[in-house]
Design brief:
Elements: E1 4-14, H1 21-29, H2 32-35, E2 41-46, E3 65-76, E4 81-94, E5 97-103, E6 109-118, E7 124-135, H3 136-165
Antiparallel strand pairs: 1-7, 2-3, 3-4, 4-5, 5-6, 6-7
Domain DUF7053: 6-141
Protein name: DUF7053 domain-containing protein
InterPro entries: DUF7053
Amino acid sequence: MFRPSTYQYFFRQPLPPSASPQRAVALLHHHKNIIELSPVAIRHRRLTAQEIPQTDNTQNDNTIYTYEVTDAVSFLPLGLWDTTVSVNIDFSDRDDGVSLTRHAPMGMTMEERWTVVDTDGEIRDLQLEVTLIASRPALFLFTSMMEKNHALYHRGFIDLVVKDMGGGIY
């Protein structure tokens, strides 16, 4: 079998100047906000403690919230091969954001760290750090797509913060 390889990338963009960093972190802690940034996510549900594989729930000392997310994906153009893929995602809330681990098919794991970073006391950035862990062939097949998707998710979350500033989402 193939040994795992890693690929890392990150995105960093300023939050609107009038955005509350505490509110941005609260929006990250509402995990549905991140899950629903994906245009291919068709359903999700939080798993009960009995449904979580023990190895997935021993990531660290923080409370882990695990969701099963089902994506509708198309592997060939013109809808020639459409299917669904289910992925377990572990969320761990942090004081400055959220960490998550996506356990994908083909042994691929995506570790993400979403943080609100105070750059100079006045400007705050939303930073997304991603590490893909998979076999070299899987990285070759999926890295470009995942990096493009994460760029969209990052921009989508900034848009969510702007929308929330207009009167609150919840």
